[in-house]
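[#protein-structures] MJ: dropping diphthine methyl ester synthase here for a structure pass
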Amino acid sequence: MLYIVGLGLGDERDITVRGLDAVRSCSKIYMEAYTSLLSLGLDPAALANLEKLYGKEITVADREMVEERVDQVLLEAADADVAFLVVGDPFGATTHTDLVVRAKKMGVQVKVIHNASVMNAIGVCGLQLYRYGETISIPFFTEEWRPDSFYKKIVNNSQLGLHTLCLLDIRVKEPTWESLARGKKVYEPPRFMTVNTAISQLLEVEEERAYGKDTLCIGVARLGSDDQKIVAGPMEKLLDVDFGPPLHCLIIVGETHPLEEEMLEFYKM
Ligand SMILES: C[S@@+](CC[C@H](N)C(=O)[O-])C[C@H]1O[C@@H](n2cnc3c(N)ncnc32)[C@H](O)[C@@H]1O
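AK: finished. structure tokens for diphthine methyl ester synthase:
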């Protein structure tokens, strides 16, 4: 059996009782570590906290492993109980749907144990969850590569008066271009996009007045942890706010209802 277990958003204690039972019953535990991370980060000390509470050794599954060697995990799950831990909810990232499809095709039984996700915990800002349009992902721009397909989606959301949740790039264990060309991988240091970088890039690609420097936005950091930070204000003003350590996300506010406005007042700068 493959248990895909959501860990929630805060720290090791956010796992559900049902999730903990599953983890403790498994012979092998993997933790997916590239679509998201807990507020306690991924340094060895943080991982040790998880291992201590769960009473199990955890193997970190990086992007290469999930994309290239996940069949090995599935083969193990065909014969034994294996847990695959995912920060947030297992279906808060598209990658894990692919894992379920592959497992089912290989005849491996799958059990999903849900938890809080950025996709629903973001409700704490006061904007109603059913008033959001398509969620977008903003990748880091480079000198040569400035993909801006997210822009059209913001235009569509804004035309409908809907809010846009922007998820921000995470780059963990990414090989450098030069090392790929040389055939021997060297990895970039981990990088997490801040609210400030996201806003700079958004202002750079703006062309149809879907939003501008005065558009009301909400910057969110470490959602679900004790030191979460939520600040609402005009896009340009948020550029100067220090949101602290990762993870960050951003909301471009659409048309608001009076109750949403009352909640937003608590977060205004
Ligand atoms: C691909 S999503 C993965 C979502 C995760 N599986 C979940 O269900 O929450 C990852 C992105 O969501 C946002 N995110 C996730 N957790 C967050 C948190 N605790 N605080 C702020 N943003 C977060 C960040 O922008 C991050 O790059």
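MJ: nice. The chain has a mean pLDDT of 92.
AK: one more thing. The two ends are 49 Å apart (CA to CA).
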